[in-house]
Amino acid sequence: MNRLTVRAAIHVAAIFAIYLSVAMLIPAAVDLFYDNDDWQAFAFSAVLMGGLALAVALATQGRPPPVSTRFGFLLVNMLWMTLAVAGAVPFMISSLDLSLTDAVFESVSGITTTGSTVISGLDQAPPGILMWRSLLSFMGGLGVIALGLFLLPFLNIGGVSYFKIESSDIEDRPFERFQIFTLSLIGIYSTLVFTCALCYAMAGMNGFDAVNHAMSTVATGGFSTHDSSFGYYADNMAILWTGIVFMLIGGLPFSIMILFVLRGHVDALRDPQIRVYGGYCLVFSLVIAIYLTVANGTPFLQAVTHSAFNLISIITTSGFASDDYSLWGPFAVVCFFVATFLGGCSGSTTGGIKAYRFLILFELLANGLRRLIYPNTVTPVRYGDRTIGDDMQRAVILFIAAFLVLWAITAMLLGATGLDFITALSGALTSLTNVGPGLGPIIGPAGNFSSLPNAAKWICTAAMLLGRLEILAVLVIFTPAFWVR
């Protein structure tokens, strides 16, 4: 590995840490407004992290290295690690006085838009802390989109390389300048958050809750200002349906949204992955709603509202909960477990395996079965009207294989810390898919991760980062070949 490459990656990470330290002034202002002494913790964190980041940025500035896949992989990992560590500082020195383990866990959960939490008593927590958690989700969601659209597509790993074929925005260059594309993305993302907050407020949320939940909803981050999450608003159907709509939007590919909003490309909405994503959201929601109505006697409108909210929350890896769905019955619990794998679309804020990977996987399966009958036939693997290349096919298989292996390893490691089977299995899965809540009484929708052993929290923290960076982007830097010149 060229020293210039490492130096440049550190420099870029330090620049982003400066931006993060400036963002710490927002919760400081919120605490000042509410007359909470925690504003000093955020102000000190901003000065401390900003000063350190500025010093590192000045010490590492210089001529940037040529763009390469190695630089891209190193930069992706360094960015997320730096932001996660910097984001943990306010948690440690605030009135919550979180330990290093808990602070890093909460920060990583926010920046990866996972939504798992170790904080109890959110209803009485300082407003600045609540705002900081939401801001981490907001920035993490924007970073996830940028990761999927700009950085990882050119590293040919996982679903991110799919962006090259999902629309004409790469091939035909409808945006002549990268800056226009970036500003368009930020504009649409921010507009969605503002609109979501406005809808929440109109539906009955107070202004503070509306802003916090909007940032977390569009980012599919799952952080709430209440211990009971959206169970606090369980009787307000308008709030729950607002959440459903904006979680669904957060799971859509932002590249296609940009093409549709700014270029009027209606045909972009015909993307096959959108149909698959919408299809399994609809089917799962209706099936569980019918089950609740028939098995539990729940009124259908109430059943479909809570079923859609909770299932779409899991599918989009948002992690909100309007009810303890682990009490809905075995069939419902199994459905929620399966939904944890799914995820939204490529280029969205969601985690999970994602819809397009399932499309390609089933196309590969269908082709394989056809070749068993007609061994000499040559049938290309297609995505809609496009042919999927060998690199993309290999990336999908590699991701799914790595995902399953890491899930098994993570679950065994969690079991070694003393966790029961359900907690270990679902904790490993929810961390890798960035969903948030797991299953069982400990980390289920009615619990949190605070009672887990420190070792288990570090394991989940590592899994959240692995899942957020599409697994392969992290694993590659641990190969000896990556560091050999």
Automatic annotation (TrEMBL):
Organism: Oryzicola mucosus
Name under which the protein is recorded: Trk system potassium uptake protein
Stored PANTHER family: TRK SYSTEM POTASSIUM UPTAKE PROTEIN, TRK SYSTEM POTASSIUM UPTAKE PROTEIN TRKG-RELATED
Residues at which K(+) binds: T113, T114, G221, T317, N434, V435
One Pfam family named in its UniProt record: TrkH
Major location category of this protein: membrane
Family according to the record: Belongs to the TrkH potassium transport family.
Source lineage: Bacteria, Pseudomonadati, Pseudomonadota, Alphaproteobacteria, Hyphomicrobiales
Keywords: Cell inner membrane, Cell membrane, Ion transport, Membrane, Metal-binding, Potassium, Potassium transport, Transmembrane, Transmembrane helix, Transport
Cited function: Low-affinity potassium transport system. Interacts with Trk system potassium uptake protein TrkA.
Coiled-coil boundaries: none
GO terms for MF: metal ion binding; potassium:chloride symporter activity
GO CC terms, sorted: plasma membrane
Keyword Membrane part of the UniProt annotation: yes
Membrane topology: Multi-pass membrane protein
Subcellular localization, as worded in the UniProt entry: Cell inner membrane; Cell membrane
Chain segments annotated as transmembrane: 12-33, 39-59, 71-93, 135-157, 178-203, 238-262, 274-294, 327-349, 395-416, 455-484
